[in-house]
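Batch 3, record 17
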Amino acid sequence: MTVTRRTRAPGARAAYLNGPALALGLAALLPVAFLAVFFLLPVGGMLARGFLPEGRLDLSGVPEVLGRARTLRVLWFTLWSSLAGTVLTVGLGLPVAFALYRLRFPGRALVRAVVVMPFVLPTVVVGVMFRSLLASRGPLGGLGWDGTWVPILLAFVFFNLAVVVRTVGGMWEGLDRRAEESAAALGATPFQVWRTVTLPALAPAVVSAATLVFLFCSTAFGVVLTLGGLRYGTVETEIYLLTTQFLDLRGAAVLSVLQLVAVVLMLAVAARTRAATETTRRRVGAKAAARTPRRHDIPALGVTALAVAFVLLPVGTLMVRSFRRSGRWTLENYRALGDPASTPALRVSVTEAVANSLRTAVDATVLAVVLGLVVAVVVSRRPRAAGWRRVVAALDGAFMLPLGISAVTVGFGFLITLDRPPLDLRTSPALVPVAQAMVALPLVVRTLTPVLRSVDPRQREAAAALGAAPWRAAWTAEGPVLARPLLAATGFAFAVSLGEFGATSFLARPDRPTVPVVIYQLISRPGVEHLGMALAASVVLAVLTTVVMGVVERLRVGSLGTF
Amino acid sequence: MLQCDDVTVRFGATVAVDDVSLTVDEGSVLAVLGPSGCGKSTLLRAVAGLEPLAGGRIAWDGRDLAGVPTHERGFALMFQDGQLFAHASVADNIGYSLRLRRVPAAQRRRRVDELLELVGLPGYAARRPATLSGGEQQRVALARALAAEPALLLLDEPLSALDRSLRERLAGDLREILVATRTTAVLVTHDHDEAFTIADRMAVMLAGRVVQEGSTAEVWRAPTTREVAEFIGYETFLTGDAADLVRAATTTTPPATTPPPTGQALVPPATDTPPTGQALVPPPSAPPPTGQPLVPDRTGVLAVRRSGFRLDPHGPLRGVVRRAVAVSDAVHLTVDVEGVGEVAALGDDPSAQLEGREVRLQIEPRGTAYLI
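Prediction for the assembled complex:
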């Protein structure tokens, strides 16, 4: 049925634009206002600084900045490293997704947890891991990769493997096996079946995952900053350097806009394929159970073993090296964490930073989950009027934006726009949680929305017809389904807030740093004692996030709880 | 009493329900019968308050329902796939509306048990919906709807998702339950058997409009248009000479007479028919078949159900079997009748090799109708 225009007798509207619809609309204003004040305003302010230096539009910076040899080098590196990272991640992720979601073998749950873990590890921690792995005295120091672009690429794969495995695996798990079986019955070889039936069916998930991986690679900050040193920079680190080191706001603004345009394009692609993925998920067949491995599954299992090794090697190295100093086993690195006087590099002890991190993350999580729930409820509804449907679609897209906008831009934007009454938040302890909530919000929305969309609207109608008022009807139909994903989203938001570095590095006050900030400060300093403490602090942070995410994985929200 | 006056529902430029007027009396069951996409479910949803009206009025006992939200209408709605709340037990599903009304737990439990008994599922209270078969789920959905003691029960294709034998059994049960509870109901379905089994009255809906309304017996016997007739199971449509021939055979040949000698023209011969087509009045001796409009009209169409043509060695019509398909308790035949053309007919011996054979057909007046 084509829905173009609604004509309706006046007055007939009244019954349908009643209290609950209105209340829902008003509730949606809350996250919208949040997005406007803490995202659009800072980003807009940052851009204004760049393009409106003396109060009038000055675009001369665009050709000038884009003409710089350094800019071109940064753009080129961003592009090719992200592309290479995406290709490698998808190539490694597909066989792993197959093994972990189509096969059944002992220890599968554990392997899934291991593969997913890196995604929530703080970027700074990952940077530290790969540095200690590939450093000249590290286990793989002999490869001579330290200081090259290889660690950056490896870190990209390490990070984003989870995105591919969960997105593609989730879809693969739900594929109706009978389509493959009928192709095989018609005489297709296993490879032909995969190429002609399985791959086309998975295509939306693969494209969706690849888009997200590319997005995450091209906007990566902490990893590139810690691994790239001065030789390799992406657009994101360049924005950081331009604003903090060179005070070239115009250059930063030009790069931010460039990044913004690219991100919006990629999000549009992701949204398109995501819609396809969600429809397919609803059509999941019952005949999709995983089977026990057979002989021809050995390559996929081998690749999975390789992936596990690839994930565990840096983690293991980090663990081991955090207990060593000057060639001896020691707890000294950990002991130093509790001592505020252990190093002049820090103003507070790491233990205090951990407390700060936890407090901030709790606030950020509450904020992100409450707002994200409202957004998810609103964008999962399908209003009758085409105009409102477009509004809903726009909202859905808008709350994805923070996922791709440079956290650096947001952080710096906070500083320059929220610095005068009525919103002078420069010294407010709320600034860091707000920024972290902004980063976690899209993840919460993406976890909850597909779950809500998968609930048949007739469930609510059935409840309403039995006499349940709208809120009660929604609670009956959606409440029970939402419980676990809501817990998962909470854990997810908490882990992300704990590890957030890009925006926090700008906003954390010197006397109240979070752990990632402290780790970065430590590795920026020379000396084994600083590196040792950074390693120990990284272990603490990694353990914290892994515990949180382990709980989330136990909730088994399954494939719906991904992107 | 439910009253729909000139109800219109639009989706953008599409008119889903077009100027429909209906009434449903207290205690009666109305079936809205129509093919998928005819707007029957939309009409039901409009009555439930789930679709806004573009025009017209829906009233209950004279009170206009515009502005009354779904949950305050006091109706209940049962969907094709039950829409049971998956996270609640059978008892909690059935007791849902009672809980909303704060009925004390003990009383609620008693009522749930009664209803489970009524729908034939005693002892199912603690089960989860996922552990039930499709038929059981629909029974629970029915019990849940009845628990609300709705002023009006709205049934949206309640049995369509079930397999045939189950559907037939449940349709009978549903009828009994509705009669026993004296529930006023509107049933939406595309299955005419279901409509005939469950409802007292029916409205046939095509392309958004109600094209015929009446008691089920009336509609069954005397569809007014070809579309309606097709939809409720008439398969052969004859006009002109062919219609006259069949009519004449119906009215002049008493059933089970001795077969006319082979080679003799069928009675009455086509040449006997007046070319103007006015004189096909049955002879005074032959009583008109019950309920059949016997106005002979050459512009009219004679509609015949499959059961209107029965294989009978003594029948007045002669033809050759073109196709024979055995079903569970009969054989569906396509017979090329001399002077009439291909008709759908019914045989009763699936073992006989009938294709290509010459046969005779008896006409069952109850299976025929004149469409004006």
